[in-house]
Amino acid sequence: MDFISIQNVFFSYADPSENPNAQNAVDGVSLDIKKGEFVAVIGHNGCGKSTLAKHLNAMLLPDSGKVYVDGDDTSDENNAYTIREKVGLVLQNPDNQLVASVVEEDVAFGPENLGVEPAEIRQRVDDALKAVGMYEYRLKAPHKLSGGQKQRVAIAGVLAIQPQCIALDEPTAMLDPSGRDEVMKTLIKLNREMGMTVVLITHYMEEAVKADRVVVMDSGKILTQGTPREVFSQVELLKKHRLDVPQASELAFRLRGSGVNIQSIPLTAEECAEMLGEVLV
User: Fold this and answer.
1) Is 26 part of any domain?
2) Euclidean distance between CA atoms 30 and 26, whole angstroms
3) What is the pLDDT of residue 86?
4) Rounded distance, CA 39 to CA 214, Å?
5) Is 171 exposed, middle or buried (0-12, 13-18, 19+ CB in 10 A)?
6) What is the number of domains present in the chain?
7) What is the pLDDT of residues 25-84, one digit of tens each?
8) Is 249 a member of any domain?
9) Quick one: DSSP state of residue 8?
10) For residues 80 and 75, what is the distance between their CA atoms, to the nearest angstrom?
11) How many Å apart are CA 79 and CA 181, to the nearest integer?
12) Rg of the Cα trace of the chain?
């Protein structure tokens, strides 16, 4: 079943009456996301992927076209409250989402504003912090945490609202490799073990490889989409549009270009090592 349905959406940050020739940030995008699916959206800066993410919980509304979340039209202001309960949005900089001086108080902020009963808030906060592996830090000050830990607290703050879907706008962009690994393990756990729908906006191809489906955007449009293997096998197409591929895929592509007989493009370091063992003997 489609949980999110994006239907021929156009959006521009410019006022059409002032600049009728302004380029659309999202230019006629149609995309369906199923319940429990893990979708990665990739593309270079300015391609529209972050703008698209903000349409998923009605932070932005289409200039034309429709976005439906679990059947609710995001452009109907009467649905805004319900939609934001169903789709939680995590932004790039965790500092922009941390509002309290103690971790557990920060995670409680969302459900408190929804009017949830105190006993239920306590349970939600504990469950959310345990889900992201930050329960032992519940009495710590957020500013004393590492970048990866802060982002996991920001994710816990969204989980405490108990959404059915979590959309993340480049959540690992400001993190070191260790922090990125922490966040990705958390997202995979939420999706695989808890069945949560995950929409990950990222420019790290190695993160996109872990999704069920990869959607590639360019100039506000969807360039191609499919499983990670289907998408990253199209190395020439991606490079033509100035997009990266996983390092393992890049190496295989170059070896193939040098005449090495490579049948299948690898996605991970492990697959690449196996491929090298076969072709270099």
Assistant:
1) yes
2) 10
3) 94
4) 6
5) buried
6) 1
7) 999 999 999 999 999 999 988 899 999 999 999 999 999 999 999 999 999 999 998 998
8) no
9) E
10) 8
11) 35
12) 20
Q: Which domain holds residue 108?
A: 4-227
CATH of the domain at 177: 3.40.50.300
Nearest partner of 121 among 159, 84, 165, 79, judged by Cα: 159
Residue range 121-179, pLDDT digits in tens = 999 999 999 988 899 999 999 989 998 899 999 999 999 998 999 999 988 888 888 88
- HSE value, Cβ hemisphere, 13 Å, CA-based, for 179: 19
Predicted confidence at residue 46, as pLDDT, reads 86
Q: Does 58 reside within a domain? A: yes
Residue 85 · residue 72 · CB < 8 Å:
no
- Joined together, the tokens standing for residue 85 give 């309960």
- Amino acid sitting at position 36: G
Q: Which helix (H) or strand (E) holds 223?
A: strand 221-226
Domain membership flag for residue 175: yes
Q: Give the three-state DSSP class for 126.
A: helix
Phi, psi dihedral angles at 249 (to 5 degrees): -70, -40
What's the predicted TM-score (pTM) here? 0.89
Listed residue (165, 167, 140) closest to 153, CA to CA = 140
Identify the helix (H) or strand (E) that includes residue 61.
Answer: none
Q: How far is Cα 95 from Cα 92, in angstroms, rounded to an integer?
A: 9
pLDDT at 252 over 80: yes
CA-closest candidate to residue 197, choices 59, 33, 57: 33
H-helix or E-strand spanning residue 7: strand 2-11
The average pLDDT across 100-112 equals 92
Asked if residues 162 and 121 have their Cβ atoms less than 8 Å apart, the reply is no
CA distance to 57, 122, 148, 165, 194, per residue, from 3 (Å)? 12, 29, 29, 9, 16
Alpha-carbon distance 8 to 77, whole Å?
Answer: 20
* Side-chain-facing half-sphere of 2: CA atoms under 13 Å: 13
